[in-house]
Structure formats: C-alpha cells, structure tokens
Design brief:
two-stranded parallel sheet; 7 helices
C-alpha cells in the first residue's frame, strides 16, 4: 500500500489513509499522505473506506486484501452499496479466486448476477473502462 500511495503522491494525486489507532501507534502509518484518518478498529476502517470510496479495486495482496474484497462484494450483494468493484488480475494472480467465484455460481451458492459484481481486468484502464458501463444488479 505504501508503494501505491507514494506513486500516487509523486504523480500529484491525493491519498487518504484510514488506519486503526493500534496500527498507527506501532508506527505503521504512512507519514506523508494528503490526509490520515485514525479510527478505533478494523471494522471502523472498512466502513469508513467504503463510505469514502466511489469504487473499489483490489490489487494483488494477501489475506487482508481477500477479506476486504469479499466483504465489499457481500455488501454489494446485500444492496448496502451500488459501487463498482474491480479486481486487478496482474499476471493471473487472481485466476484461482475468479475460478472459485465461477465454481460458486456453477454450484448455485452464488447467483450469476452477484458474480457480475466483480469486474476483473489486467490493467487499471481496462477496469475503469468497464466501470463506466456498470450498473449494479438487484440484491434479490
């Protein structure tokens, strides 16, 4: 996340960070963001990030990335938001996760309309282009 933030800042962009107090106190917080919001818990962090966001794009990462992605997909499925959700599939990093999503549809654990909440692409431009065409499916 730090490399991404540094790249955005170096390009003249703005970066708003949201971090739980416990992590900020461990000096994990980025020191040069446009704005840093400190919250009480990871739950508050995710809720505030969702509120502040116009859309979501997950980049390759670990368990936290997948957990946050699945939560925001679930919130979209339940109709808590209608914001686009993207998955930047660099070098096939998320191929297995996307196959799992497709299997869940095949096995009828997930509706195809809800699988459609996740837009995957191999470049940010591809995802942003798809976002411009997106319409949230109904939550029924």
């Amino acid at each position: 996340m730090g490399v991404l933030a540094d790249t955005v800042l170096a390009s003249g962009g703005e970066v708003v960070g949201v971090i739980p107090k416990a992590l900020a106190e461990k000096e994990v917080a980025h020191k040069h963001l446009t704005e840093l919001r400190v919250v009480g818990s990871m739950h508050e962090r995710k809720a505030l990030m969702a509120e502040l966001s116009d859309a979501f794009i997950a980049l390759p990462g670990g368990f936290g990335t997948v957990e946050e992605l699945c939560e925001i997909i679930t919130w979209g499925q339940l109709g808590f938001h209608g914001k686009p959700i993207g998955l930047l599939n660099v070098d096939g990093y998320f191929d297995s996760l996307l196959a799992f999503f497709d299997r869940a549809v095949h096995d009828r654990f997930v509706r195809s309309t809800h699988r459609g909440l996740v837009i995957d692409g191999t470049s940010p431009e591809e995802i942003l282009e798809a976002f411009s065409d997106c319409r949230p499916p109904s939550s029924s």
